Predict the structure of Restriction endonuclease.
Amino acid sequence: MFNLNHIDETRFEEFCFDLLKHLDFVNISWRKGTGLAASPSDQGRDIEAELIRRDVDGSVRNEKWFVECKHYTKGVPPDKIQGALAWANSKRPDVLLIIASNFLSNSTKNYLDDYKKENKPPYHLKIWELKDIEHVTTGLQDLRAKYELPTEIPYLNILNKYHITYIASLQINSAEFLIEIMDDLHATHRDRAFDMLYHDVVRPKYRQPTSGKEILAELKIDEDDYPAFREKILKSAERQSPGYIQQIVSFGLAYLFQFANTTAIPEFIKRNEDVAEEFEARSRNPEFSDERRARFMKMAALSRKMASEMPQRTAQYHETYQYICENMIKKLLSEKMYPPKD
């Protein structure tokens, strides 16, 4: 079970510090100074950090974050966050993040809702509770191990057995056998599964843009569909290493599983909802032009649309993933090729 009750308050702040480093924050400063309980007052925030952001117009800026770490085995009460709110109002970071090792009490959540309505703070207020911490640390196995947190990989139980066997073994397949199997696959499943693999193998050429408004697909000279992939594989495989087919198929499976991983749905939805909130907050900046505010609102709507469509989209990819494993990978495992004897 994922929880942080086994570490003390100072250790929790250290965990938050390390977490920010793993999430690519920079210029991270732990306000306690020494990391000891006897260190000086943190002046209303535990950690200061910066996050590099790239705006929709391509410009890059550093966001200032204040991070307040609250380590409670029960709900964090309202009076324990007032110092952080006061400091953020005074110094105006871009984001005030409150990380709770368990959760905020209902009274604290109500207090924050009323606070945002009445004060309209000039910064974005974010809350990470235990469930959020579990999501953002998914895949950060070194961090979890350091703080004695569960390190099992959540998607192991949904990996298809033929996928596991294929990538764990030394499987030598012929290009002809691969294409024979892929020719028999349902085209919708085949193209949904391997569109990125087609592109990676074919490596189409692109022309130089003339207007600067073209999308990438309009600049493409060569086709990178299944027929082009098929032709390239059959022509080039004999010049490749014996494990070439396994390498490209494993890449295709890995890419497919990213979209088929049902355990990642909550994290994806939460991340896109956070992004939408951030864009909406930026759109309210009175210094921005109407056009720029409209762009932020458009990006917010896109993020919410992606979040709402994620469960159905993942279900489609998961169906395709299982189909490919059962109708392609299983067959590839049946081919027994041995290097010829001298």
User: Anything to note?
Assistant: The radius of gyration is 25 Å. Residues 137 and 144 are 7 Å apart (CA to CA).
